[in-house]
Amino acid sequence: MKVTIDDVAQKAGVSKATVSRVLNKNYQYISDDTKERVLRAVEQLDYRPNALAKGLKSLKTNVIGLVLSNLRNPFWSQVLEGIEDVCKHYGYNLMIANSRDSLESEEDHIRGFGLRQVDGIIVNPATGMNPLFETLSEKQFPLVFLNRKVEGVAADTVVVDNIKGSRMAVEHLLRLGKRKIAIFLYPPNGISPRLERIEGYRLAMEENGLPVHPDWIKIVRNKQECQVEIGKLLETGLPDAIFSTNSILTLEIMDALKELGLSVPKDIAVLGYDETAWAKHLDPPLTTIEQPAYEMGRVSAERLIRRMDNKTDAALETILLEPALIVRRSCGET
């Protein structure tokens, strides 16, 4: 039996008008408790209102939902270009949301996509485990995870080989004669790229017969903490190099080093992760590990569209893309 708006209203204990306002994100005069009751009822009853007149006829809206975890990171602009180009080529519109790495915000966006009857979703998962992923997977709803792996959920996943990227970074520093290499990263919090970059760093050090000092693995959240941790390194003997695992973090490290009166690469080498438009304009120009951002976006969109159009019955898989080393002068290269 088809679920109607009356069923939702009855289950939530509100009027049909209130349900309609919540569905249209008109939250004026509606309490958070009422809003949550309505959204919960919608999810439990699997209510799917008609979002567009075209959807009434074809059951297809030609809209793809995209949730990214941090639009502040310039890496995502290139990923977005790849997704947009594929969507335009195949005649799909794109609905973009930014979770700001908030699980609650991510859940709200995905529920909103469901209410608008998007044909599929690409998501760069926020920190934590979103229960909606399991629901989408169980219903075989077209879903692609981007740049982060989600354990226990059956879905196509497009990521970069982060272990290889870290190994390439460390091995480049070793070729330049660096032996005391510190790694800086944001709190891992179960996020697969961060964990894999630590693993690649450990493997490269161990394979080259070098110790992995716990004090050289620095977990930081901002520039102030970078400065504190670099200060601690100064007290015990400055390392030869810092391997930064994030483009925004690299800027924070460079600022912290400058404020401490340290020169790159004269006093210490810095190697970054994620090629950006500004990396070559830094002083000195930044040596970095490039992720194929545009390709990541393109591949994820093509994979999703093939699922949505039933053009593939291939098994779900994790697609692993290759990183590359961009050599400039921040590590003392000549």
TrEMBL record:
It comes from the Bacteria. The keyword Ligase does not apply. GO terms for molecular function: DNA-binding transcription factor activity; transcription cis-regulatory region binding. Keywords: DNA-binding, Repressor, Transcription, Transcription regulation. This is Transcriptional regulator. It comes from Paenibacillus naphthalenovorans.
